[in-house]
Amino acid sequence: MSIIEDKAGDGLGRRIRSERETRGWSLAELAGRADVSKAMLSKIERTEASPTAATLSRIATAYGLTMAALFEAVAPVHARFQRAKDQPVWRDPKAAYLRRQVFLHPANPLELVEIELPARQEVGFPASAYHLIRQVVWVISGRLTLMEGAISHELAAGDRVELGPPSDIVFRNETAQSCRYLVAVVRR
Q1: Which terminal Cβ of the chain has fewer Cβ within 10 Å, N or C?
Q2: Which CATH number does the domain 4-72 belong to among 3.50.50.60, 1.10.10.10, 3.40.640.10, 1.10.260.40?
Q3: What is the pLDDT of residues 135-156, one digit of tens each?
């Protein structure tokens, strides 16, 4: 298993810069669209800083992409069969949230993402991250509190929830054990 943050972080920075340049956007324009500081974007593009999941989500949304699409150019594998060791893995530097891209193919609107959220950690995403997608979250092991706006969902192993209309989302592990869950994403 290769963790994108460690092994191909420069690829992610290049991908973010390439998307920006393809659109003819300045750093300031991307900063305004993504609500991320120009200084932070510059550091990410130069691989001097590793973005958090929330920051990556904001950047992807500004581009009209899912987070997974940012990783696609870092680790492009479109084979029908893919071993676990070859699936792109990325670790959030703030929450140590581990994200494995189980399935992504440009011709298929379905994405599968496995997440491991460490004990007593949380990761949040703005409502804007959900305008292009629909999601179902299924807990594999542990317990997960999912805050969907003002609605709280308490999930245990085997439980699932389909997310509703776009709202701010917080994935929270309030326990002493890590939580693993699968996110099924359908791009619209």
Answers
A1: C
A2: 1.10.260.40
A3: 999 999 999 999 999 999 999 9
Q: Is the dihedral of CA 141, 143, 146, 151 positive or negative?
A: positive
CATH number of 84-187: 2.60.120.10
In tens, the pLDDT along 72-92 reads: 654 455 678 888 988 888 898
The dihedrals phi and psi of 130, each to the nearest 5 degrees, come to -110, 5
DSSP string, 58-110: HHHHHHT--HHHHHHTTS----S---GGGS-EEE-TTT--EEEEEEEETTEEE
Compute the distance between CA of residue 57 and CA of residue 168 in angstroms, rounded to an integer.
12
Find residue 91's DSSP bridge partners: 98
Q: Which residues lie below 8 Å from residue 29, measured CB to CB, with a gap of 6+?
A: none
